[in-house]
Write a structure and sequence with these properties.
This protein has 237 residues and is an alpha/beta fold. The protein contains seven helices and eleven strands.
């Protein structure tokens, strides 16, 4: 039984370089931000849902869906500001009674209605200090370019290519759900610290919205895989 005081914090700035007003675009009949609010509200362990923003328009949307807006100061509202700074500021506004924070990014709407509940239960059962949502990565061979533009293999050695069956399982931190103790956040200024756990999600749930093409892809996935779970009926388009 999880008895700690748990809140959800959703960071949602008004501006966006990739998609104008990204957090408020229509996504399957609701503002994109609304889905993260709804998902948090469907989680019985969460006592309050808060949206940290610099935008009055975001606050209007938050109020419409019964979340509490927290005005973010200008010095932590720019492109270079960290999410951790916004979370700490939000915690200061909420009060000292909070012990566990669920951090949700509105650009990751592909959560099942019970995903956050299950993530919190994994967090509690494992006695973790922090937890992130993830998926298993089996068949992707990852490369990156160094500062000189030279390609380098990251998660395997192309000089000694092994069979897929012989490679160890790797995990993607998909950015959808984070759960962590407030005291750990304050101590390390990091959402992940101490004893770290993982909550596994399906691979398709790891896609997020950063560009217009993402909107089209995630809309199709949401309607086919998830919308009926929220509306209680099967619906494709």
């Amino acid at each position: 039984m999880i008895k700690q005081n748990i809140i959800a914090i959703i960071p949602a700035r008004g501006g966006s370089k990739g998609i104008p007003r990204k957090n408020l675009i229509d996504f399957c009949g609701k503002p994109l931000l609304a889905w993260s609010i709804i998902q948090a509200q469907k989680t019985p362990y969460i006592k309050g849902v808060y949206v940290s923003s610099d935008s009055d328009e975001i606050f209007e949307c938050s109020e419409q869906y019964n979340a509490i807006g927290i005005k973010r100061p200008a010095d932590i509202s720019g492109d270079t500001a960290t999410s951790e700074s916004a979370i700490i500021h939000a915690c200061e506004q909420v009060g000292a009674q909070v012990s566990i924070i669920v951090f949700l990014q509105p650009t990751s709407p592909l959560r099942k209605p019970d995903d956050i509940t299950k993530a919190i239960e994994v967090f509690g059962a494992g006695k973790f200090d922090s937890l992130f949502s993830s998926c298993e990565l089996h068949d992707f061979l990852i490369w990156e370019k160094d500062k000189a533009g030279v390609l380098k293999s990251i998660n395997y050695n192309y000089h000694n290519r092994t069979r897929r069956q012989d490679r160890g399982v790797q995990y993607v931190e998909n950015g959808s759900i984070y759960v962590f103790k407030k005291e750990a956040l304050y101590k390390y200024n990091n959402r992940l610290s101490g004893k770290i756990g993982m909550y596994f999600m399906d691979f398709y749930q790891s896609f997020e919205i950063n560009a217009q093409d993402d909107v089209d892809l995630l809309t199709m996935i949401f309607k086919v895989k998830l919308l009926r779970d929220y509306e209680g009926k099967s619906r494709l388009f």
